[in-house]
Inverse folding.
């Protein structure tokens, strides 16, 4: 199982500095609730709607850092999160799931490399977590993703950044967001 230290290690592995220009970095604490699913309370982030979920963008970060949480609208094929986690009980199965998700998530022409997989706990929910590097030419982005079955739906979360952008300040902002995230039981 990957603990908080493991999550921080995954995030630290994936670093490249890409400046974020023109953003007002003065932000106040926000508390958001997605009724019946989760809540998050954190300073320095803004939220915008995306299909099937929300994107949270860090305003205090010196580089572009985003966290996205989505729920697949249909009922999940697993009856519970414990059944979902049990399906991926080996590193090989976790890696196969991560490869499948990433291949379906990126456009043709991009190279995907899954770097690390494992189990963790985020916001009181056990999740399958993995880190992947996505590249096309000299542009390299990194995703740390997590998945679980929550309220009979597949929940997918991801931390998006550019390779090298995970400075200590930006890692602290990501940690603060994840610490403020609570899934309803």
């Amino acid at each position: 199982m990957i603990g908080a230290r493991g999550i921080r290690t995954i995030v630290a592995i994936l670093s490249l500095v890409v400046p974020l220009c023109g953003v007002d970095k003065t932000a106040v604490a926000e508390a958001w609730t997605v009724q019946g699913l989760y809540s998050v309370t954190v300073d320095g982030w803004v939220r915008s709607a995306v299909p099937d979920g929300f994107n949270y963008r860090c305003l205090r970060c010196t580089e572009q850092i985003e966290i996205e949480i989505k729920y697949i609208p249909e009922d999940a094929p697993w009856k519970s999160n414990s059944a979902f986690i049990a399906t991926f009980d080996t590193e090989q199965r976790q890696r196969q799931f991560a490869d499948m998700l990433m291949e379906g998530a990126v456009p043709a022409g991009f190279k995907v490399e899954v770097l690390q997989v494992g189990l963790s706990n985020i916001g009181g929910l056990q999740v399958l977590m993995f880190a992947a590097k996505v590249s096309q030419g000299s542009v390299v982005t990194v995703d740390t993703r997590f998945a679980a079955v929550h309220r009979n739906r597949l929940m997918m979360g991801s931390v998006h950044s550019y390779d090298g952008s995970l400075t200590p300040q930006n890692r602290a902002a990501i940690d603060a967001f994840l610490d403020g995230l609570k899934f309803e039981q």
Summary: Strands lie at 30-34, 38-42, 45-50, 53-58, 65-71, 111-122, 125-136, 139-150, 153-162, 181-183. The CA atoms of residues 55 and 68 lie 4 Å apart. The chain has one domain: 4-183.
